[in-house]
Structures are given as structure tokens and as C-alpha cells.
Design a protein that fits this description.
The complex is a heterodimer of chains A (386) and B (354). Helices cover 45% and strands 14% of the residues of chain A. The longest helix of chain A has 29 residues. Chain A starts with 13 loop residues before the first helix and ends with a helix. Chain B has 354 residues and is an alpha+beta fold. In chain B, helix 7 runs antiparallel to helix 8. Chain B starts with a helix and ends with a helix. Classes of the chains: A alpha+beta (386), B alpha+beta (354). Chains A and B meet through helix 3, helix 8, helix 9, helix 10 and helix 12 of A and helix 6, helix 7, helix 8, helix 10 and helix 11 of B.
């Protein structure tokens, strides 16, 4: 076989089921206490610091990391369960999600010990928020076209340039960003970029909010003007960020957040349709559930491979490709079926409001965190076509 | 009992490679490869994998048998291996010994029904029965006034109207008219027409997933050979992205089918969770057969549309297998009803059950 794709069936171990009960109980309590509402996807309160700290106190942030950095040394499968339950409950995870999924693991791998000891425990306690500084006005999918400069100076670097589409930069305490330390070489256009830890909320950084078509302000333009970053904030090899970027992608791309972003409209459709659906609704719901179930099993399978120490980059890209296309189409398929829901359905208004928001959200899902086109390129390379 | 997960599959793959090479059998207009292949499979005990030794089989595990079916899909073998396995499995549920030779199951569609009358005779009409024409015996699930029974019937006692599915394999209509079974016993608790269709559906899902793996494989290979506009077509981004989507469909089918097989192999009963797994596998694999097969053909262009080329052995069979034991639309309706009955707040707990 040219393409040996593997998606072995994984059964979540018993400790996951115990944990799942705890997470559900916690989320139910928080909903009852009014910390957040699962029915308001377009709420203004996507940033809820109090909720972050409570999740941290439960030990559910950085839960796979070493205990000396505040982690719990639990498995990726356990983390998977926490993540999917939070998504399905529509919990306000914005403040901690990036740090937990991406930034923490980067620091674990590349930061000096003193920084790890300082920052990782605070992520685990749910106290700090991270942003990722990748895209620039003229560099999106083509990451290695980044131009924002880091110029060597006494004891560190001076940063000049602009990052854009940076989610949560307006609330972030830190950013992990790539800056240009050298020009690309003839042999390697990916050469010359370096990964840095940036402390936000300081002079020299200006964060300008950018309105989104959903009506939210979640991403930003971040302008650096002679902003100083100390030497020990370099993460990994100077000029060698390209070697570091790929291994994290499997984590970033295959999680439950890659197909559950619009899940709430499916739940609400089932509620609206009631216990005795007509044939059309039943078939529509059945297909969507079968597709959802299949993606989840693929995603869990990738989590199992990650837990086993493998790097299923192609499999993870497939999960994100299929998952994001699905969650993008989901609101439209639900809308098709909702056209036949009885006028008397008690949650009709909720369903319509959720559909409006999900339909406005949909276009971004196949763009953020690696576009469909980039993913298919990676899959094609894995197949031996490039 | 096989010693490892792989021995059954390795044995089968070796036999398929030796006696069912796709190009060789595609060139053989007289189907003279079928008898030696069946004989080799039978000598290895594979058609009765799911039948314990004391009932005449080789007693492989459910998991090993499922893996074997996936391998059979990769070779798109056109002998009643899957059908005999399923028929033997059904008989074994009622502790009925399996005879030698080809078998198939009645019914093969959730809409058809065989009834058992007070005189102990079986009647009913079953459409779309795979390989009925080749079968020496039928393994029958029948409904009587005392519940569900399982029976072994001589194929010669049924009336067969022969037909072909879109993959050119026999898919026949079988009528039993007051037929006396060779053996009949009450089905054990938990074995009914739905479980039979779910087992059949997962079998077809595994075969479709296997066929898609092969379609991906030969499509990738062809795209790396075929030159157009002075370069290999694999270098065109449009072709690359199509093949990436085919890989996605193949992966989805494989994941859905093997997950459902694993669920059944480890289940104590056919509960809602197993139902979700098995129904989803049939729905998703059928969708993948359509979408994935279309891409495989697109990549191959006109050559893949010829009877000389092997692609249709996989693409048409994968499409045909969608119809057996309940189509994807049938299972989608049934799964949708189950989800609606459980209610909105019980959907996620069902999906996240393992």
C-alpha cells in the first residue's frame, strides 16, 4: 500500500469515564450557578476569568504536564474527555484553551527552566491567557513569508512589525510568536524565523481589535514598535522555527474542537423535532449523527496514537479537513431540516437564533489553524504526491 | 482459535494474492479462478471462521473474522466468503452445525421476512440475496408465533430468480414456499432480524473500507505514472486535493467500520451504543463509497471506465455493497428515530459512550 493510514479503534480507559462524570457534574453546577449558558453561543461573555480559575482548581489545565510544573501527569485521552465535554456544554474556554493546547507544550519543550517554573503553574491554575502570533498582513497560510523583525540588541531583541488575526490578543498575558531574525537563504526559504515568548500588556505593543462578521471582536491586529524581548525568551533554535512547527500540529489539528464548534445546532434540532420525527427529519438526523460519530472515533483514534508516542501528522490533518468541512456544513443541513419543524416547537426561537450565529461562524472554520487547502497539501505529501 | 490477530488475515491475504490477483481475474472471462480460490479458502477454514470447531468451523474470534472481511474488501473478492461467514455465524448462534460449501443468509434486507408456520414450514420472499445462486445452503432467520428461529435449509428447496447487482455479482430473489428446514432451533435471546442486519451491515462496511483502501492505492500509483501537459498528473494541485479527499473518505470508512467491528466483538448485547456504531458504519461507508469511488474514477479518466481496467472491481462492488442488509438511507432513518426517541440531551452521552 502506498498510503498506510491507520485509525485503530480506541476504547477510552475506565479512568476517562470517571473523569467524564466529574466534568459533567462540574459543568452542570456552573450552568446552574449562571457562570455561563449553553444556549447562548453568541454571548458577550466569552472571556470568563472566574471560570478559568475554577477549571484550573479542578486540575484540568495542563493535565498531561509534569507535576513539578503544576500538571497532573494524566493521559492525552483524559485531556480529550475534558476538552470534548467543555465544547459540547459550550463552556467559555477562550481564556485558557490556547495555553492548554498549544502554548504550554511549546514552553515545556523549548523554554528555559526558570520560565517554565514561572509560567506553566500559572497556566495550570487558569490565571493566564495566551495568544499565538503567526499570521501577518502579508503572510497567512504562507507562514514562512513572515516579516516582523527581531533585531539583536543588548541582552535581547527589538521587535518591529505587525501580527494580525491574533485571537484573544486583547486579553492575553503572553504571546508565542515567530519573528524574523535572518533573511531566508537560497536553499531554504523557511530559514530565518525564530520562536519567541512575548509578555503582553507592555509599552511597545498596541492591540487593535478587529470586528468579525459574527459581530464579535475576538481577533486583533498587534503592532510592535521597538518592543524589547529578553534573550531567554527565545524558544528553541534561532532561525530554526521551521523545524519546531510541525510536531505540535497533530495535537492542534485532531482534537474534538475541530468538529464540535457548531454542534449545538444539532442538539437543538433534535429537541425541536421531538420524539416522533417524520422520515425526512429522521434520515437527516441519522446521517449527521453517523458522520459525527465517525469523526469522533477518528479523532479519539488519533488521540490514542499521540498517547502512544506516535506522530500521526497525516491522520490528524485528515481529521481536521473532514471535521471542519462537516462543522461548516452542519448549520446549513440543520437549517434544511428545521424548515419542517412544527411552528409550535417550544425551542424554535432558540434554534433559529443559534442557526443565525452558527451560519455566520461557519466560514472561518475551514480557515483558522490551517486552511483546508494547506491540510490537503499535507495529506497529499503524506500520500507521496509531492 | 487463532493464535494472533494476524494469522487469519495473513493466511487470507496470501491466498488472495496467489489466486485472486485483481488483474489476472479481471482478464479471465470464464471465471475459472473462482473454484480454486474457494477451495483454498475452504481448506484454510476461512468461510466458517465464526463457527466453533464442534459445529464444523475453525473457531476464529469475531475480531479476526472482521479483519479477514476487511482484507477480502481490499481484494474485492467475488466469492461468497462474507456470506458464508455470516450464515455460519447465524447458525452457530442456535448451535446448529454448518455444512460444507457455500452458504448465504435469508433475509438479506431488513424489509423482507421469512415466516415459520404451525407445521414447521418456512415461507417468504427475499430480494437482493447475495450469491444465492452459488449457495448450497441457506441460513435462515424466521419469525413464528413463538418468536424467532434459526434454520438450515437446502438451497435446492428455494425458488431462485437470478439477478446481478451493479458490481456484477449475484444478487438474487429467493422464495421459500412451505419449505421444511433441515434443522431448526429457537434463536437465543438478543438475536433477531435487527442484529442480523447490523452484523451484515458491518460486514459490508468493512468490505467497502477495504475496497476504498485499494482504490486510494491504485489511484495514487496511477497519478504518479500518468503524464499530461508534460508532467505527472500527481503534480497538479487539483489532482492532489482530490486524492487527499479520497484519502479522507477511505480513512473515514476504515475508522467507522473497524470501530463498529470492535464494538460488536466486545459487546455483551446489541444495545444502543452498538446500534450507533453499526448503523453509523453502514451509513458512513456507503457515503464514502460514493464520494471516494467518484474521485478514484476522476483520477483515472477514461481508462478507469474500461472493463479491462481493475478499478471497477472495487468501485462498483463498493457501490453495490451499499444496498445489502439495509441501505444507508434505511439505517439513517432508523438511527434518527433512535436519537429522537432518546431525546436531545441524550445524544451526546450516546456519541461519547466509548
Amino acid at each position: 500500500m502506498t498510503a498506510a493510514l491507520r485509525f485503530d479503534p480506541i476504547r477510552l480507559p475506565p479512568e476517562c469515564e470517571q473523569l467524564r462524570k466529574e466534568v459533567r457534574a462540574f459543568l452542570a453546577e456552573e450552568i446552574a450557578a449562571g457562570t455561563f449558558s449553553p444556549f447562548k453561543p453568541n454571548r458577550e461573555d466569552t472571556d470568563v476569568p472566574e471560570f478559568s480559575r475554577k477549571v484550573g482548581a479542578k486540575g484540568w489545565l495542563g493535565m498531561t504536564w509534569p507535576k513539578k510544573y503544576g500538571g497532573q501527569e494524566r493521559s492525552f485521552l483524559e485531556r480529550y474527555v475534558v476538552t470534548e465535554e467543555m465544547r459540547v456544554a459550550n463552556a467559555p474556554t477562550r481564556r485558557f484553551f490556547v495555553a492548554d493546547r498549544q502554548s504550554g507544550p511549546v514552553l515545556l519543550k523549548y523554554a528555559p527552566e526558570n520560565i517554565k517554573m514561572d509560567i506553566l503553574p500559572r497556566i495550570c491554575r487558569g490565571e493566564i491567557c495566551f495568544a499565538i502570533g503567526m499570521s501577518e498582513p502579508n503572510s497567512g497560510s504562507d507562514l514562512f513569508a513572515a516579516k516582523t523583525r527581531a533585531t539583536k540588541t543588548d541582552g535581547g531583541y527589538l521587535i518591529n512589525g505587525t501580527k494580525i488575526w491574533t485571537s484573544s490578543a486583547h486579553i492575553a498575558d503572553y504571546m508565542i510568536a515567530i519573528f524574523r531574525t535572518s533573511p531566508p537563504t537560497k536553499e531554504n526559504r523557511r530559514h530565518g524565523l525564530t520562536q519567541f515568548l512575548v509578555k503582553m500588556k507592555q509599552p511597545g505593543i498596541k492591540v487593535n481589535p478587529i470586528g468579525q462578521i459574527t459581530g464579535q471582536y475576538e481577533f486583533n491586529e498587534v503592532v510592535f514598535t521597538d518592543f524589547f524581548v529578553p534573550e531567554d525568551h527565545v524558544l528553541g533554535e534561532v532561525d530554526g522555527a521551521w523545524k519546531q512547527a510541525t510536531s505540535e500540529l497533530a495535537y492542534e489539528r485532531s482534537g474534538p474542537e475541530r468538529f464540535l464548534e457548531t454542534y449545538y445546532v444539532l442538539t437543538e434540532l433534535v429537541r425541536a423535532v421531538g420524539p416522533n420525527p417524520d422520515t425526512r427529519s429522521a434520515e437527516g438526523i441519522g446521517r449527521l449523527v453517523a458522520q459525527l460519530h465517525t469523526m469522533r472515533r477518528m479523532s479519539v483514534s488519533v488521540a490514542g496514537m499521540l498517547q502512544a508516542g506516535k506522530e500521526p501528522v497525516v491522520e490528524a490533518s485528515i481529521v481536521k479537513d473532514i471535521g471542519t468541512v462537516w462543522e461548516q456544513q452542519l448549520p446549513h443541513r440543520v437549517r434544511d431540516l428545521a424548515a419542517f419543524v412544527e411552528e409550535t416547537a417550544t425551542n424554535r426561537e432558540t434554534l433559529e437564533r443559534q442557526l443565525d450565529f452558527a451560519i455566520k461562524t461557519a466560514p472561518k472554520l475551514t480557515i483558522q489553524g490551517g486552511t483546508t487547502e494547506v491540510l490537503r497539501g499535507i495529506i497529499a505529501r503524506g500520500l507521496g504526491l509531492r | 482459535m487463532a493464535e494472533s490477530d494476524n494469522i487469519v488475515v495473513e493466511t487470507a491475504e496470501k491466498i488472495f494474492a496467489d489466486l485472486a490477483d485483481p488483474q489476472t481475474i479481471n482478464n479471465d472471462k470464464k471465471n475459472s479462478w473462482q473454484a480454486p480460490l474457494w477451495q483454498a479458502l475452504s481448506e484454510a477454514g476461512l468461510p466458517l471462521s465464526w463457527v466453533l470447531d464442534d459445529l464444523g468451523g475453525s473457531g476464529a474470534s469475531l475480531a479476526d473474522g472482521f479483519a479477514l472481511l476487511n482484507a477480502a474488501g481490499r481484494f474485492a473478492v467475488a466469492v461468497p466468503l462474507a456470506e458464508t461467514m455470516l450464515a455460519g455465524w447465524l447458525l452457530a448462534q442456535a448451535k446448529i452445525a454448518s455444512p460444507e460449501g457455500e452458504m448465504t443468509m435469508l433475509p438479506a434486507s431488513p424489509k423482507d421476512r421469512i415466516t415459520l408456520d404451525a407445521d414447521g414450514a418456512l415461507s417468504g420472499r427475499c430480494r437482493g440475496v447475495p450469491f444465492a445462486k452459488a449457495a448450497k445452503h441457506f441460513s435462515v432467520l424466521a419469525h413464528g408465533k413463538d418468536g424467532v428461529s434459526i434454520a438450515l435449509v437446502d438451497a435446492s428447496k428455494g425458488r431462485i430468480e437470478s439477478g446481478l447487482n451493479v458490481g456484477y455479482d449475484h444478487s438474487d430473489t429467493v422464495t421459500l414456499d412451505k419449505v421444511q428446514p433441515n434443522t431448526i432451533k429457537a434463536a437465543p435471546k438478543g438475536v433477531d432480524q435487527t442484529t442480523l442486519m447490523l452484523m451484515g451491515g458491518v460486514t459490508r462496511s468493512l468490505q467497502i473500507a477495504g475496497a476504498l483502501e485499494s482504490m486510494l492505492d491504485i489511484s495514487v500509483r496511477y497519478s504518479n505514472e500518468r503524464v499530461a501537459f508534460e508532467k505527472k498528473i500527481s503534480k497538479f494541485q487539483a489532482v492532489q486535493h482530490n486524492l487527499a479527499r479520497l484519502a479522507g473518505e477511505s480513512a473515514a470508512a476504515l475508522a467507522a467500520a473497524t470501530s463498529a467491528a470492535d464494538a460488536i466483538a466486545n459487546a455483551t448485547s446489541f444495545n444502543d451504543e452498538v446500534y450507533l456504531e453499526a448503523a453509523s458504519a453502514k451509513i458512513r461507508c456507503a457515503e464514502a463509497a460514493e464520494k471516494g469511488g467518484a474521485i478514484a474514477h476522476q483520477v483515472h479518466g477514461a481508462i478507469g471506465f474500461t472493463i479491462e481496467h481493475i478499478l471497477h472491481r472495487y468501485s462498483l462492488r463498493a457501490l453495490a455493497w451499499r444496498d445489502d442488509f439495509g441501505s444507508e438511507s434505511y439505517w439513517a432513518v432508523e438511527l434518527g428515530k433512535l436519537v429522537a426517541r432518546r431525546g436531545a440531551d441524550e445524544l451526546w452521552p450516546l456519541v461519547a459512550s466509548r
